[in-house]
Amino acid sequence: MAAAASSADSQAGRSSSGNLRFLLRGLVVAAVVALIMSLGNVNIGAIGQGLAYGLAGVTVYLTFRVLGFVDLTVDGAFPIGAATCAVLIVGGQSPEVAILAAFVTGALTGLATALIDIIFKIEGLLASIIVITAAYTVTLHIMGGKSNVPLLGEETLISRYSRDFRSWLVEQFGDQMRRQSTNLLEIMIFGAIVIIVLVILYWFLRSEIGLAIRATGKNPQMVRATGLNHNLMIALGLMAANGLAGIAGALVAQQFGFADVSLGFGLIVRGLAAVIIGEVLLRPRSVGQFLAAATAGMLIFDISRAWIFSALDLPTTDIQFVSALVVLTALGAPTLYGRWKSYRQRHSS
Amino acid sequence: MLSLDHVSVIFNEGTPNEVRALQDLSLFVDEGEFVTVIGSNGAGKSTLFNVISGAVEPKAGHIELDGRNITHWPEYRRSHDIGRVFQDPRLGTCPGLTIRENLSLAAIHGRRAGFRRDVKAGEEAWFIEQLGRQQLGLEHRLDADVALLSGGQRQAITLAMATLVKPKLLLLDEHTAALDPNAAEQVISLTQQLAEAQDLCVVMITHSMQQACDLGDRVIMMNRGRIVFEIAGEERKNLKPADLIDRFHSLQDGTELSDAQLLS
Asked: How close, in Å, is residue A8 to chain B by CA atoms?
């Protein structure tokens, strides 16, 4: 019954009125988040960070939801992307080239998982654990044997514009904006990059290949019976997904000002939380809406985590525990809510 | 069109659980011919389909389709030429995608998927015509999620998808077994109509003696991985379900199978 009802909605979701409803819901959620941020004194830096990590949320949406593939590769693809980006920038390449290269190395990490799954018939979960383990060493080698590559004094997308932007901001809005200038710049630049990437990804998913990838996650047997190579679709899907994780790694490295071999730790959990937060709050129905929801979910995750930190005045050492708590809330809340509703029903009648 | 030449399939070879699913089986199906396959459970009917469609590799023998040796082709490559409808209505279509998206996927049949738009405006008339012939009204619901459809409607969509681009061979694996009698009748008449309109080469597995007598030009009975008899020509035209059931039972008694049993 419930499944039928939600599918009926999905029909409506494909129309433009469905998009309008999605947009309105997004605005309401954004207003609530903004309210929490101002009341809870959350630094707007959390938005920039959420945007930088946002594409990793889309990675998890693509693997878990679209391909139906339990894939942890994002934990390895992300630091590989960060390392690739940092090393290239230190080597004198432009940040744009470094981001593209991070996409490629991230995609190759996804390809490794796909090949292990296809050739050795090792399940996705195990295949990706093997790849993460190997990726650790690969990341160290990319960074020349060091576990950390600093970007201090190098030209990143942020540092390239930060001085000009700061003086323009101070000129326009006065000296009190000086402190926020880097945060605002990050929001603008990362926001633009995320939008460009999502538009390209949407176009890809709405192509014939994208259609085949979406069908592979739902019914691989049918894809084979249609004369399409479902293994190829799994490989392409994992490459696209982990390429995005590579880009996210590159953005985070530029934001933090360094790449570190342990950057990807716990990312799969955050990505999963992002997907679920996005689905619960925004109720996406179509491909485009799902992409937007996964990105927004990561933003909301980072903001709520920052809020908890400032509200409870916690030291940064507690960050992973707070992450785990936020994820548990995101995953567990829908179930608890359902139980509470059926409890109410039983006791009201 | 389709020819199987001394094909054998053995599962779990060399273990106590060894199963000789197909034993030295040869079969030839001509262009435009409609063959029905009957036989008890475990007779090897599904294995026959799996070995034709490429889901199972034969231990010996070779398979030709339209003059090409496809024995070692992967399943997806054979699907360029072979349309399939499965017993389980959920297997043939993709839930979560619309009817239009499912048909668009089927329209890629026979070529590579590319970067063209997944759903093309120019294909709508084609889809509407294909579904309109079925007279189920599905052509008005192109944007409905396939998950909303009944089993019979899904089988109708699967049939439309399997024949959207004319296949060289259509395999129907008990495609009405999971349907209620009404829907089954509808899907069977659709099948007949499609096969005649496109002059398709069809092989259909069925458990219904009635269907085996009503549809097609030839009946094949399988038992223990072999074809034990074929009925074609005049005899087939006058065939009654009761005759088939008699022969079916005589098989079970072993009267007609003594040689084969001695050999196996």
From this structure: 7
